[in-house]
Amino acid sequence: xxKSDFSHHYIQRFNAELEKVRTDTLAMGxxxxxxxxxxxxxxxxxxxELARQVIAxxxxxxxxxxxxxxxxTSILARRQPTASDLRLxxxxxxxxxxxxxIGDEAKRVARMAVSTSSSTDARSVFLExxxxxxxxxxxxxxxxxxxxxxxxxxxxxxADQDSRVDREYENILRQCITYMxxxxxxxxxxxxxxxxxxxxxxIGDxxxxxxxxxxxFVKGRDVRHTDLREIESELKQERSSGIx
Amino acid sequence: xxKSDFSHHYIQRFNAELEKVRTDTLAMGxxxxxxxxxxxxxxxxxxxELARQVIAxxxxxxxxxxxxxxxxTSILARRQPTASDLRLxxxxxxxxxxxxxIGDEAKRVARMAVSTSSSTDARSVFLExxxxxxxxxxxxxxxxxxxxxxxxxxxxxxADQDSRVDREYENILRQCITYMxxxxxxxxxxxxxxxxxxxxxxIGDxxxxxxxxxxxFVKGRDVRHTDLREIESELKQERSSGIx
Lengths: 244, 244
Known about the structure:
The first copy, chain A, has about 240 residues and is mostly helical. Chain A has helices at about 5-45, 50-80, 85-115, 125-150, 150-180, 185-220, 230-240.
């Protein structure tokens, strides 16, 4: 094997490793999305069995997190990537941390499902929790799709959804406060609903984090503490002046 | 300058950069610790001015986070560290993310301080919030000290404190539920107290994260999803058999 063959082979293997990191991250995202969907269903349908399954499955999420992290660390140590390869690894490391924490929030929702499952209280707030859960799941799904396609515009659209999620959460919170004031005996039960709603709202925030990491990867700029509307208007300017 | 001079110079500059990363992280930790202390004081003493100061100072925390992250990324790209140098950079990247989020929680506590400041309700639960705040601040302080000295045993001791913090939080939560049931008009006010307590409890969790990263750095092992008591008993075994 001459030198150019070697370097070709080396680059091929490196690319295969980067591709594996990316597919493993998306697979982890898929599992977390399922956990989130199951957690919300277990709460809304009062299904403690499904909730216990979500709680038990969290070790799988953790295992995938450790696996991807180890692969990233090993690539950093052996391949010493620079420029966009380095940014990809850092993006993945940050993304899996947030995915793992989204898994933790799903587990919290499932715990609230176990805790509220024996109650016969069938308030309309469960419908709104289901709706909030669907919105947040859509955010996660779209964030993972944006990551799969390295699509900054899709990432910005996810961030746009977050204000809707926040409003929905505030709405559920107000409704819960009214329930508690009307009938103080329901306070422990309604608090569990509030915790679940708050976990869902936090998942929305974490989806935004993932989108910010993706923008960092594509644009090479840390936008974590930037107003994303600035990035949006920049993108529009770039499009209108033909830069890509 | 001959070759060995060059490599000596290179290593010196590299070490200076690693040292800067470490001191910047500790400086960021110091600021976050102050933010936490001020946030708790603003809540307990009903001081909305101090609370607004905490909220305004959060941009400083974010700025330090971005600065340390940029330095780490630049070191990864230019110096391509391996082994313990690489682990140090990864430990710092993870630590600053948690410090930044601890800053966010302190800001949330400060917001609750603004929101509750006009109330004349002087319940004993504020004393317990103050105590919880002190415990969590101590955890953060000890975690940063452990990081400054690369001290695994000190890190394990921080993790031990977390169960006390969790118990204290549960205790405050129970007390708040009783308040709300006794006088439903206080529900919005007491919910604010609950949010603040929950933020403090989450800060305790994040201090544990920082300690886990430190153990990863020193032991070269990812312990994020491991029971820390296992590491503790390993350490004891190592000590008794004289391994270090």
